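Methods — Computational structure assignment.
A single polypeptide chain was analysed. Its primary sequence is given first, followed by the predicted tertiary structure written as structure tokens.
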Amino acid sequence: MIQALRNFIVRRTFAYKLRNKAMNMFSSFENFQTIRKKAEESRVAEGRKHEVLYFHKVDDPYSHLTVHYIEKFKNAYEVEFKPILVSEEDPSALHEPSLYTDYCLEDVKRIAPYYGVDFPGTSYPEINLVKKANSILSSVSSEEFGSLAKTVSHALWNADLTKLEELEATYNTSEEEVLENLKKGNEIRNNCDYYFGSAFYYEKELYWGVDRLNHLENRLTELGVKKSGDNEPVCLLQTKAPETMSAEKKVNLTYYPSLNSPYTFVSAKRVKEFQDQYPINLITRPVLPMLMRMMVIPAFKGKYIISDAAREGRKYGYEMKEIFSPIGKPARKAYSLFPVIDSMGKGFEYIDELLKASFQEGINIGDDDYLKNTVTELELDWDSVKKNLNNSKWKKVLNDNVNDMYQGNCWGVPSFKITNADGSNPYYVWGQDRMWLLKEEINRRLT
């Protein structure tokens, strides 16, 4: 039954009741708590230790960041740490792979200094160096992994062949053994319903890299396995930008939301707050959901996205409640009104209301009465606005928006773009995880 529901998430056309049921099941806080409780009961009953798996991909920029926190993590928590080498990502989970690889490299270059990590990479490492890195780490014990993996990663991203060969003289694995090791690692990762490197897994739950380590830390602390009594996290951003700032000048902040995106919903509250906190001109440029852009999201990725976004929503005080996915006709009807509403100065407010309806109130946003009430509550004239209902002009608007988003190697949502007030010097950021980085960039430009 669960697998059937997972499959329903990722199809573009199907019975909407089953789709909504699946999304609500994976976002439910009650289900989240139940899964954790049962997982812990099973662990205790089976006499297993607190085992944390870590999936490391040597040529993944994010793994370079994450591995710098392994020793700190092991020293902070009484857990059995099990590193697992993995290789290529599941191709079905990669959309726009060339954009993805370019973006990841640039993203890690940007954020590494805020984590106190030196990232020397300017391009992806050559395959012969990747093979050497995997050969070395395939010979390393779990106890040595954290410290040695840092050394290997620095050598790899520095293209330091001499250092890798020096390490390989001590730590060496045959090519056949390395391939078998990576194959097993990928199988373990896949069986955990994941698809990338730089991720932790603990008792039915996944935690991606430095961005999600806080959730794992909170869980382990609640279980009483933190070695000290302090509340200091292992992984802490070292940001410079203030919570709020004022300036004579403003920058443009372009927001690319999608009506079916759980992560967009999670971001909306903070985007709204951004207008009060920072000197910005907010520009809202919605795009079609990925499923309506003819992209197929595999079941395991759909499940992870919804459950992870729900977890992030709870973190930021914006919990998902009753979900009604607007994929298809509801989204098209709602989008058809956006250009005219945006021209009246209420574009963001309209999208914000649609997201709340879809992810908190369980409302079909394609319902005419709902749209009328929403427009009226925005203090706009329904008789004027409704003339645009179901027209086709919005398609070009959204197509232009997605093309602009792609200019920054961004294809998913929410994405953002900062420019100077005259539209110059664009700076693109993908994901609600990087909203702190927007503040850093604005602070850099205006101070």
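Note: Residues 49-222 form a domain with the Glutaredoxin fold (CATH 3.40.30.10).
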